[in-house]
Amino acid sequence: MFNKKLILVLLSLGALVIVILLIMGYKLSSKIRWELEHTLNAYLEKIVQDYASSDKPLSVEYNPFVCSGVSDYKCVSKNIALIDTDSHQEILKVTDLTLKVDNITTSSVRVLIKSPKLTFDGLDKKIKENQNDEVFQIYKVFRPDSFVCSEEDKILDKKDGKISSHNQCKITANKANYSYSIVANVKSPKLSEKTILNAMISYYANFISPQKFSEEIDDFDFALENISFSFESKELKSVLYPIFESDYNANKSGKKNPFNDILYEKGLQNLKELVGFGLGVTGMLEGPYENALINLVEGLHSMAIDKAIGVKVVLMPKKIPTPYFKIHPSILLNIDKSSAQQRILAKLFNTYDLKVETILNQNEE
């Protein structure tokens, strides 16, 4: 269900971005731009050295950040890349990674992170080698090309060390858009009586590595107020149609009718039924999220026949106010194990409701 190497890739990239934010936050108080730039790049170099040993699955290469600004700050790195240690292949490259920090007070801060170009040469190569051309073409259509993310942090209770955080991202692909939003609260004695920047430094400093995070996670309590994920595309039919047509023609022996919309929709219906059967066999339709999963399949089917342009999945707490919870270190260290995944699912089932909305095509409303 979860690929450990992929999780490490995403966590490493996320940690890299967060570390940048931390160093920026620290140096903002001094209002000295060149010190910010120097310290930022020195810290990135430390991460490079930490991942330099051959037993690490990833290494990091980067172009130094160049920073500008007086009260609001912007720092840009031309390239940051994650390299597979075994193959020395560039898995992911982020071009012109830009960080902006503004709206800075003692109790709140806003951060913008964006890149106009993402490349996945290593992943492209692996998929092309291991999958057929149809799968690779689908992958290219939905592979992320750029992103814009923002985070707003605010102190809710300085004495108790309680902070709210709203993180949202929009990821653009060739013929699709993805977006997510997370509204969460975190509290810890380690965050009490601090300014927002110092509090976030104390919190995000734990994200440098999975091991570091797992060692410190017991000191924090979390409450997820809302999580949503959206997938939008007006081109899903144009992507799927030639694939269904190719499959039909490849198995056309004895068939006289050319491929058409009726045959396309019949193929989609068969696929939808197969997915439903798979969900049933795995027991996914026996849990509390049965209706949501059915609605998700129906929504994607509507997108594939041009009746909808998107689906939105929302995770909402069953109780208000949202209860806080702890994350056991073993879950983080064993995220690729079925036992850890089952504990995560059990927590979700007990605490949150899952809702799915279909975003209809305007012609269908």
Which keywords apply here?
365 residues; alpha+beta; globular
- The tally of helices reads 11
Query: What gap, in angstroms, lies between the N and C termini?
Result: 36 Å
Largest sheet: 12 strands, antiparallel
Oligomer: single chain
Commentary on this structure:
With 365 residues, this protein is an alpha+beta fold. The protein contains 11 helices and 12 strands. The protein is 41% helix and 31% strand. Strands 1, 2, 3, 4, 5, 6, 7, 8, 9, 10, 11 and 12 form a 12-stranded antiparallel β-sheet that branches.
In short:
The protein is α+β, with helices and mostly antiparallel strands and 365 residues long. The protein has eleven helices and twelve strands.
Which secondary structure elements does this structure contain, and how are they paired or packed?
Elements (H helix, E strand, L loop, with lengths): L3 H25 L4 H18 L7 E5 L3 E4 L3 E12 L5 E13 L5 E8 L1 E3 L1 H10 L2 H10 L1 E14 L4 E12 L3 E11 L8 H9 L5 H7 L4 E12 L3 H15 L10 H21 L8 H15 L3 E10 L11 H5 L4 H14 E9 L5
Antiparallel strand pairs: 1-3, 2-3, 3-4, 4-5, 4-6, 5-7, 7-8, 8-9, 9-10, 10-11, 11-12
Helix pairs in contact: 1-2, 1-5, 8-9
